[in-house]
């Protein structure tokens, strides 16, 4: 028999039975510890963790008849509200499990979607989550809802003979279309912001990384922002941007993005592609890594897989090994390749150590051409002198014998050219054809 679902919204502290099955599938395995963190992040109360091993999933119930009986006994003993699986179940498997267990069943994808719905704050984030949920639920409308199989009837609903299930599917499709149209408008506005940043040539640096690696803590410490940060999975969902001043670069836009996770549901990747576009169009990615995690190397691999899926793997990347305060004898440092280019920075966002090394590495990677020489300005160049000081481009000022100003400059070549054009100053006064600039 099918069970009747509880009313939506009664989700506070659901008593949960957790189910994890080991398969001989190598990198496709799921992490039981991460599963527990997901359940806690969703507000669940795990009371039993049932494990097992199989060579392959059972096509009908995923776990097999004997394990179903064990799960049902545990659920009844604890008077559970929900049974959670650390795996992606097919719609038929969920339906068969709910029929056999007579308890509500949710798979890993549904659990992650539930957390995303809990975390979404912005209008775009909420729309994206709802779209992903509708796409996930479309093939699951029949499970657990016995009334959907009945024909509509009663006053005001007679006529075409459309079943309740068909009506629900049509309403879901209509809602999906409405959300997609709304997202188009929001994405159009976001795209205008991207074009404005490109016109002003402000570099964008995106924070990416496995969820709970400390991205938001680092973001807050660097920009004095107040993005929600907590020791839980998907604490931050919606992208946040702030301006940050970097030596030799000037202002950059720092973007904090959603954390990644192993086997991130494809529906979520698709739904959040517009948000993750900040990542694909960034000048530099800061891949924040929990250096103290036992799963560090595997988490790095999972982030790389998602970056490849959203076509961001070609964006220049700097690895940021965070939480070195949890490691023994670890000190802030910059790792470089054989050419001397920064490839990794070790720091602690919580302890606020190693930040100067991070900004140094960012400067070296983003500021490619620097104008670094001493120029001579006359009293008629007072406006240019003032603008150079506004840009913090003057490293030292002295005076020539005739009273002219001698300014030792250090700024991006393109920025210097813009200042010259702004003041109507001929560029060839200071920038020869054979420019000797410092190439980082």
From TrEMBL:
Gene3D superfamilies tied to this protein = 6.10.250.2860, GTPase HflX, N-terminal domain, P-loop containing nucleotide triphosphate hydrolases
Question: What are its GO cellular component terms?
Answer: cytoplasm
* Annotated keywords: Cytoplasm, GTP-binding, Magnesium, Metal-binding, Nucleotide-binding
- Report a single Gene Ontology molecular function: ribosome binding
Q: Summarize where Mg(2+) binds, as residue positions.
A: 216, 236
Q: Where is the Hflx-type G domain?
A: 203-370
Q: Which residues cross the membrane?
A: none
Q: Does the keyword Metal-binding apply?
A: yes
Question: Function of this protein?
Answer: GTPase that associates with the 50S ribosomal subunit and may have a role during protein synthesis or ribosome biogenesis.
User: Under which name does UniProt file this protein?
Assistant: GTPase HflX
Organism name: Oleispira antarctica RB-8
Query: Could you tell me the gene encoding this protein?
Result: hflX
């Amino acid at each position: 028999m099918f069970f009747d679902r509880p009313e939506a919204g009664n989700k506070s502290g659901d008593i949960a039975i957790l189910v994890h099955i080991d398969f001989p599938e190598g990198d496709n395995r799921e992490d039981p510890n991460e599963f527990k963190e997901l359940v806690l992040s969703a507000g669940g109360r795990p009371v039993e963790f049932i494990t097992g091993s199989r060579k392959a999933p059972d096509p009908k119930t995923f776990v097999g008849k004997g394990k179903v009986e064990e799960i049902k006994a545990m659920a009844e003993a604890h008077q559970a509200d929900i049974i959670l699986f650390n795996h992606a179940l097919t719609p038929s498997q969920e339906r068969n499990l709910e029929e056999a267990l007579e308890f509500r069943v949710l798979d890993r994808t549904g659990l992650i979607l539930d957390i995303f719905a809990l975390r979404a704050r912005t209008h775009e984030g909420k729309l994206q989550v709802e779209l992903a949920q509708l796409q996930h639920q479309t093939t699951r409308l029949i499970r657990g809802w016995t009334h959907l199989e009945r024909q509509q009837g009663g006053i005001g609903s007679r006529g075409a003979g459309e079943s309740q299930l068909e009506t629900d599917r049509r309403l879901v499709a209509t809602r999906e279309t409405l959300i997609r149209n709304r997202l188009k408008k929001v994405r159009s506005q976001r795209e205008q912001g991207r074009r404005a940043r490109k016109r002003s040539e402000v570099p964008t640096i995106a924070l990416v990384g496995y969820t709970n690696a400390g991205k938001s803590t680092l973001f807050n410490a660097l920009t004095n922002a107040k993005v929600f940060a907590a020791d839980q999975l998907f604490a931050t969902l919606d992208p946040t941007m702030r301006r940050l001043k970097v030596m030799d670069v000037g202002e950059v836009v720092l973007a904090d993005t959603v954390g990644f996770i192993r086997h991130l549901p494809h529906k979520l990747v698709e739904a959040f592609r517009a948000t993750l576009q900040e990542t694909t169009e960034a000048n530099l990615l800061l891949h924040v890594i929990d250096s103290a995690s036992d799963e560090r190397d595997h988490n790095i691999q999972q982030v790389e897989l998602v970056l490849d899926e959203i076509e961001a793997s070609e964006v220049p990347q700097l690895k940021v090994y965070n939480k070195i305060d949890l490691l023994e004898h670890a000190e802030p440092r910059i790792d470089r390749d054989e050419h001397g280019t920064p490839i990794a920075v070790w720091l602690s966002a919580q302890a606020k150590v190693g930040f100067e090394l991070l900004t140094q590495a960012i400067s070296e990677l983003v500021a490619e051409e620097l104008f670094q020489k001493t120029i001579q300005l006359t009293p008629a160049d007072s406006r240019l002198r003032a603008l150079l000081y506004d840009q913090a481009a003057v490293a030292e000022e002295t005076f020539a014998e005739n009273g002219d100003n001698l300014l030792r400059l250090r700024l991006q070549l393109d920025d210097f050219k813009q200042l010259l054009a702004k003041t109507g100053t001929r560029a060839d006064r200071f920038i020869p054809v054979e420019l000797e600039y410092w190439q980082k």
